[in-house]
Amino acid sequence: MELEKLKTLCAFDIKDDPLVRALCKENDYPRALNILLTKNQTLAEYFCDAMKYSGSPLVDECAKAPTEQRISAIEYDLKVISDIVAKGAEGIKQEIAEKTGNELIKEMPCFESGKFEYDAEYFLDFVRKNGSGIFAKYRAFTYNGKLKPIEKPDPISLRDLKNYEIQRKQVIENTLCFLKGQPAQNVLLYGDRGAGKSSTVKAIFNEYKELRMVEIAKEDIKYLPELFGILGKTGLKFIVMIDDLSFSEVDDRFAVLKAALDGSLSAKPENILIYATTNRRKIIRETVAEREISTADAIDESMSLSDRFGLFITFSKPDKQLYLNIVHQLCEDKGIKADEEKLDKSAELFALRHSGRSPRTAKQFVEWLSGRIELGLDY
């Protein structure tokens, strides 16, 4: 019985895959059919994806150090899967009907089988280029003690960002050094809200597909050593992004991040950079008493964390001319044609009514303007 051989898979860790369980353990053809039709995949395509994203330790080790025995184990699994795919839906229905005594299965619809024509090198090459398991399937994650994939990351691109070329160039060049194995720095992006700090990091992540990113909230900085342990084993390149960084007067997370930037027994692995954003030059929030005392020691301690980032890049709030220039560029991108004087007046009024001039406000205004024009409304 071919389906029984799924129990003998020894290289790819897919025995708990829903389709494998349905075919092998549960003899549930209706469930298998439902899975394939829902995924809109052939049987061969489904098995291929399951094996690529399985996160199988033996396959991972073989990708690093192939041996005859490891490759033989992979080839055995591929032969098992190939034989099952070759049976086709009719053959699988026949086998399950014989096992269960349920002849009605033979009358059920068929799925497409496709062709399973992959060798061991195909999967080993995939792991070398893309990693394995969850890191091969997804590129962006959050972490709060548990790694969670982001299925639809913010799609913002570098061409969506206007002006601030000098600031972005520094981050881009640093990222390229990181990707090419050259010395690279942790980066602190400082400046006013809405100036494009977080958007710059996300756009760079989208630009370079070999990058992975993990967003960690400032409340979860305590998990950094744990996260480093997970990411350091992969060999992939990660940006750990911490948005809106600040600490209270007494905060254990300060010491954790300081140690991560300085280096310690739980030092940051070489395949990881930290990119953080903040609205505060002094990342530690001072109390009223501290501001009144304002001793040199207090100032030094407050500044000590920001000084540990190799790159400190400032994004200032735009003046009127720069703000309107951003508005004009965004309108051009959207194909919006409007009277310049009226456009500028409306953009300024929009900024006054919202959070002031910023690239974010400019983007919000142009989106608002686009909707107004589309509906034939005045602006």
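^ that was protein a. below is b, sequence first then the tokens
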Amino acid sequence: MADTETKALKSYADIPLLDWDLLNPEFSSYDLFRKLREETPLVKVQMGMGTMVLGLRASMVDDVVSPENTRQLETEMKMMQGIFDGPIFDFIAQVMLFANGEAHQRRRQPVARTFAFKLMEAMRPKAATVAAEIIDEHLGKGPFDFLKEFAAQLPARIIADILGIPRSDLPVFMKWISDTAESIGFVDVSRRADIETSLVAFNAYVDKLLADRRANPRGDFLSDYVAATAASGDMTDGEIRAQVVGLILAGSDTTRNSMCMTLFELLQHPEQWKALCADPDGLKKRASEEGLRYQPVVSAIPRVTTKDLEIEGYLIPAGAVLAVSILSVLRDPAVYADPESFNIHRADQQRWHLAFGAGAHRCAGEALARVELEETLAVLARLAPNTRVTGPSPKLQPGAIRTVDQFQVQFA
């Protein structure tokens, strides 16, 4: 880049700094993101002991996630939060989501081979059966906690069946999932001890499952995964375990929250819910896609710049933490017509939904998450068309992975 061009660019210091961090409720405000997006392409937010640059416009996504410009965040986010060792740090250091280059490829390949789209598509009958099973438990029995008794149960039961986990272990297993999911994003310091206790127990449980499949292969996913990692011989025991834990999280926590918010939005738009009930199989994918766009659970895609990078007239220095705000981009009017409206009939959904990330680090659990969301919506529309909200409106709490506070419904 020529010196004259460099001087014409705005500097890192010129990027507006917001006076809140990732756990501030403002981080979930669509109104704020709309206002900011109109005024500036980038903002800076506090992140523990450091600062993150947040991109707000869809036009910059490709540049931000390009491996020529940036790399995946590794343990930097934890260190910026004062976490330099322990179970959380070790998990982040070993899981494929926060790895680059050879380490990422080595960790992802066995998972991709055994958790492929084609295999997950075969899970549709299982997802539909489990959804119907849970609906039957609550149909005509009054209001209940949809978040805990349906949305959390369905992915947990399916993952348990895939991994051969006894249903009797699910209550504690689900707590481990919920707590461990917090380790991925911006950790609430007051929750660190509880998160690490669950993570240690979760690790020990997965170690036992892996040892069982090594000794007694069953021809299931976990047996195939163990065989694949043994054949490659280039992963440590900690890495082998971390990918299983990470996959469970990818197929559970985000799905639970997306399921709640998508159903809520459908029920808030009766004409669209009625349309889904009239054609469940024809509209289940469109309904799922719009729910993921309108109320995304993952709030951003964080990266680290590997060189000085020009973004929308600003010069971002090498080594900066630079993220794409999924909340902002998925409501960018440059891409979506009437983006503030929930519309399952929209024709401008993108081929690669940003809710699952982008590039080489796109969510490995995407196929299963889509199956679970789509089949659940279809079964709900068929078996419980008179579903109604009976409590306060659910809200997504701020964070790297946003979580639903509560959701009460009745299957009438």
